[in-house]
Amino acid sequence: MYAMQYELTLPADYDMGIIRRRVATRGPALDDFPGLGFKAYLVRDRADGSPVNAYAPFYLWHDTAGMNRFLWGGGGFQGIVRDFGRPTVRHWTGVGHEPGPERAATPTTAVRHTEPVPEDADLAELAERELATLRRRAAEPGTHSVTLAIDPYRWELVRFTLRTGDPAAAVITVTKEATKEAEAGATAYEVLHLSRPGLDDLPTGRHW
User: Fold this and answer.
1) Is 127 helix (H, G, I), strand (E, B) or coil?
2) Which end of the chain has fewer beta carbons closer than 10 Å to its terminal beta carbon, N or C?
3) 29 or 175, which is more confident
4) Helices H, strands E: what count in the chain?
5) What are phi and psi of 195, to 5 degrees?
6) pLDDT tens sequence across 62-113
């Protein structure tokens, strides 16, 4: 399992309706993409209280074959490069994934939390502790799913949580989460669409 994200920071006066229309028309193209667990089409919008405008899709792949096919095998990334230039693509090795009580629903918000792994951390103990936290977070009401991954180059943990709720309240939720968790290394997003061709096939629990 591999997590991946790129973030396009857009001008302060950018018309985010362009991104919303892009997702509405092109998002379903990955609804049956081989090797993709899910792709969450995420935005941050200054008009809704975000400090920046951004388009920042987050992917969870079953393996590197699907990720490679998307990035340089003609699977769709060329459209991003053509329209916005080639962004830096972050990726993390999957550690664990847990479905929440709202797994069958459509998520409206997401929170990505990152934090450095301390140099003196016992990695086995850290993994077990984080997996226990993952299970607790997944059980919270309104949770669609929670994913834990790690970048062993930067030694950085990432937790990615998808949540459900009234779509009309999504903007308020994102703004509150951004304010509440900004100091804790978290970034909140609105979810415009979720492609989930292989979501139900993702193994739950630890990934080793």
Assistant:
1) helix
2) C
3) 29
4) 5, 11
5) -85, 130
6) 999 999 999 999 888 999 999 999 999 999 999 999 999 999 999 999 999 9
Residue 174 has pLDDT above 90, yes or no: no
End-to-end CA distance of the chain: 10
> What H or E segment, with its residue span, contains residue 184?
none
pTM: 0.91
56-87 residues labelled b (16+ CB within 10 A) or e (exposed): bbbbbbbeeebbebbbeeebebeebeeeeeeb
**Who's near 98: CB < 8 A, 6+ residues apart?**
134, 135, 137, 138, 145, 146, 204, 205
Q: What is the DSSP letter of 76?
A: S
Residue with tokens 């993994």: 127
Measured distance CA(104)–CA(131) in Å, rounded: 22
Q: Is the pLDDT of residue 153 over 60?
A: yes
